[in-house]
Automatic annotation (TrEMBL):
It comes from Lysobacter firmicutimachus. Residues 63-156 form the DUF4189 domain. This is DUF4189 domain-containing protein. Residues 1-18 form the signal peptide. Residues 33-56 are annotated as: Disordered. Keywords: Signal.
Amino acid sequence: MKTIFVAGVILIAFMGHAAAQCPAGVPPSPNCVPPDGPGWRHNMPAPNTQPPAAPRPVWKSTWGAIAADGPNAALGTASGAKSKRVAEQIALKQCRERGGKQCVLDASYFDQCAVMVTGDKNYIVQTAVSIERATDLAMGRCNERDTGCRVLHTDCSVPVRID
């Protein structure tokens, strides 16, 4: 009986040690997790780390232009063009197609808005970050020099997201 008791104590003493043995190729750890396993401490994110920031969007500018022939009441406009040159060509061509004989390029702009305000004697073209801002500026300038000021044209050429 004494021999069985001693054998039992020895077995109990070595049971915990035997349970902590990991298979070959797995470093010793309390849970015997393989190094490529999701719970291994080197595969866990560091505490208090933030995920990488999302990439910022990439924007491409677009162009607009306004051309006019005041005496012949012809107006040509462009917006959303890929370049300044293209926007200007479109506006001048449109002005001529609408009866303009001496079309003049009044404004080229990118990533903003433009308005044309006309009075009884003159017209004003104004660009700004918004139609409201451009209108306020143009109406103020028109009312200083003319009467019967009113908005004739508004448009915006906004950037386009490419990524």
